[in-house]
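Q&A log
Question type: sequence-to-structure
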Amino acid sequence: MSRDLQRSPRMRSIPVVVGDAPPVWCHVVAPEVVNPDARLTVVMHGVLRNGSDYARRWAPFAARGDRVVLAPEFDALRWRGARGYNLGNVMDGTALNPPQRWAFTVLEGLCDAVRERFALRDGDLDMFGHSAGAQFVHRFLLFRPDAPVRRAIAAGAGWYTAPDRSAPWPYGLGHPALSFTDADLARYAARDVVLVRGSFDIHHDSNLRTSPHALAQGANRYERAAWMFEQVRRVDPASRWRLVDVPGVGHDDSAVAPTAWELLVDRATI
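Response status: OK
Response body:
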């Protein structure tokens, strides 16, 4: 990354390559002077693959707090469809891709690059994802259990992968290439995760999956968030996961962002 990023409060956008995986555009917003103790916040875009828009919308939050905001952009050409982005590029058909080509693994490499360029001392990060980005976030925690995520917020996901080995992939973890254990699922349920849903996110649109397995999770995104919350509580009734409603908001990342920000800056909020 260019060192210009360290001297300017403006957003900078550059392609970054991690290993032999396809490049990812990184949109980064930071205060003019970055404190080495600043926290890294990762913001994951939705189906439009518009990471730069998410970075702009989160820029005011970065200016208000001692934060560096990274909004990666997994473009639709190199990271195709839900398989390549929402599902982390974990699978190629029925076979498991090498972990170094997972979008989940690549994200960790992007975070490492940002920390290095800003000389950030804090190895932890916070995550926010909306819609397809919320799908990415909740699956990221499954497949990268050692990722140092302080708190993850998944807002308005269209459908979920349940921590359930009896349900077929990708709606659950039932797949011969996957080998999640009881301990893995318990660790997942113990993560600090907030499922955020707009109270008006109850409408169908062309991006809402309507397969039988998806409909079994609920008729809309609002219902499906509650369904996922219950799936995690089946693993651990004392799970740290929370379900938070944003009144009067539909499927709108900019409208849920202020609530997400407050949840990230004040971990005692819930």
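Response note: The mean pLDDT is 93.
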